[in-house]
Amino acid sequence: MNSVETPDIEQLRARHPHIFDRPVSARLATPAVLLLALAVFVFGVVDLDFSPSRMLSGLSQLGWIARLMLPPDPGSSLPIYLKALGETLSIAVLGTTLAACFAFPVSLLAARNVIPSAIFRFPVRRLFDTIRGVDTLIWALVWINVVGLGPFAGVLAIAVSDFGALGKLFSEAMEGADRKQVEGVRAAGGNALHEIRFGLLPQVLPVIAGQVLYFIESNTRSATIIGIVGAGGIGLQLAEQIRVLEWQKVSFLILMILVAVAAIDWISGKLRFAIIGRRAVA
Amino acid sequence: MAIAVSILPSQQLAALNEAYRRAMSQRRLRFAVSAAVFVAVLAAAAIGAEVNLRTLYTYFGNFVSYFDRIFTLDDGHRVWTNLPEWFWGFKKWIKLLGETLLISYVGTMAGMLVAFCLNFLAAENTSPGPWVRFIVRRLLEFARTVPGIVFALIFVIAFGLGPVPGVLAIALHSSGALGKLFSEVVENADMKPVEGVRATGASWLSCMRFGVLPQVIGGFSSYTLLRFEINVREASVMGFVGAGGIGQELVVAVRKFYYSDVSAILLMIVATVFLIDIGTGWLRGRLFGAEART
């Protein structure tokens, strides 16, 4: 049986009508959506004023700037930059820890297996969502109004905006926990607090620790930019040097940020795996 | 039926107890040491970040009263008692919000196109060569690690104020983030269809088009939608550095203490972000089934 049968088109057509005779609407759906997406894109490009002459002059400017950036050189400000970098790292670590400390008890209220009643859970979850919907930079602006310019405002901004994100993640981790341990504690006569302490916490703590470390890592990135609105750290230096067109310092600062982020990524990756073992972090 | 619990002879038990105690004390010691290190790091960070609890204590009232102030109109009434007065700039703001959405849309699309072109070169299984892969990966990494708003700051100087630098910054940052995710999707693709296509004598391009693309297109669009969601949030602050959208109005209102304007604009931003989140979530659910959000 080595001969290749010529496929009988008619027979196939009869057997798979949904492939051969798709309705016009189904056949046109994909191109229509693509066309629509493209139309909005083109409209946006025109509406947002992407004129070719502007692009050309901008690109040549950019090329000029890139040439001025080389070689990266901190001038005499290296100590200031190192201090600013330390400030940024401090903001990230402290802000995330504060956020985790506040988010943990509140996230208990948002977990379905701790608080079965939806009446309590709903407002807590919406609170998390609302806080998360406002960008860190906006929170930084608010806190600058309260405690003044400086890194402390940055710490509070990161703490608040991460409160929303961590609260959601923590409550999801708790909902993913196994019920059996909790039932075991209850069977042994433990009350609700015992159930959380001995049934739930040991399960979720490693997950939570991993998430907090991951957030410290990603907050190093956010903390580099909140200085742009005046909340301390290396972003402040970066924004200032860009404003005064000191391009060699700018490129040096960007390099510093890249190296710092890479170093933090590496360290926290190691720590994370040490805490939770080699398994995927949610 | 009674169950007898067997009790080991006492010297065996003592040995086991001893081993258990030692193991536990070692664990406790390790925990105590890491906790101490963590507290030390926190203390160092507190000094580095100039934390001042006195300031916080003195001004915490400000934080609470800030919310009181932004929800009060100039005439001393609560904002919600006089909606037309509260949202006096509704027409202007909604236009700026539209601009913000357009910035993030165009930026996401452009970034997606770049990521789409580059990711096949960065993925382990489809890359034409190790050198190409290395270079493309470093490029994507660079675009992803530098925050979008830093690109925006530089582009504002090169391209002038307005939405153009915002779009470009979002596009650049998105191409880095999406390029990595896309190449991971491609790495998970089944290579058998590609071998099938190659067996017909097709070029690399055709292999990608007919072997890989049909498998990965779903993942690509899902990630792009997710990125759009994130970019809406990012675009809302692009105006802080002069890169277009609603952020400019917000930063002016905050700096000039137009309190009720701050709450009105914030509310509109939060509502927009909510709607986009829900909308794209619904769309993703419809297109690709319930998938884990990353």
TrEMBL record, chain A:
It comes from the Bacteria. The chain crosses the membrane at residues 28-46, 91-115, 136-160, 196-216, 223-239, 251-269. Residues 85-268 form the ABC transmembrane type-1 domain. GO terms for cellular component: plasma membrane. GO terms for molecular function: ABC-type phosphonate transporter activity. It is found in: Cell membrane. It is a multi-pass membrane protein. Keywords: Membrane, Transmembrane, Transmembrane helix, Transport. InterPro entries: MetI-like, MetI-like_sf, PhnE/PtxC. It holds the Pfam family BPD_transp_1. Belongs to the binding-protein-dependent transport system permease family. This is Putative PhnE protein, phosphonate ABC transporter membrane protein. It comes from Bradyrhizobium oligotrophicum S58. The gene is phnE.
TrEMBL record, chain B:
PANTHER family: ABC TRANSPORT SYSTEM PERMEASE PROTEIN P69, PHOSPHONATES TRANSPORT SYSTEM PERMEASE PROTEIN. One of its GO terms (molecular function) is ABC-type phosphonate transporter activity. SUPFAM superfamilies: MetI-like. One of its GO terms (cellular component) is plasma membrane. It is a multi-pass membrane protein. Keywords: Cell membrane, Membrane, Transmembrane, Transmembrane helix, Transport. Its main location: membrane. Residues 97-280 form the ABC transmembrane type-1 domain. The chain crosses the membrane at residues 31-49, 102-121, 142-162, 262-283. The gene is phnE. It is found in: Cell membrane. The keyword Mitochondrion does not apply. It comes from Bradyrhizobium oligotrophicum S58. The keyword Transmembrane helix applies. This is Phosphonate ABC transporter membrane protein PhnE. It comes from the Bacteria. Belongs to the binding-protein-dependent transport system permease family.
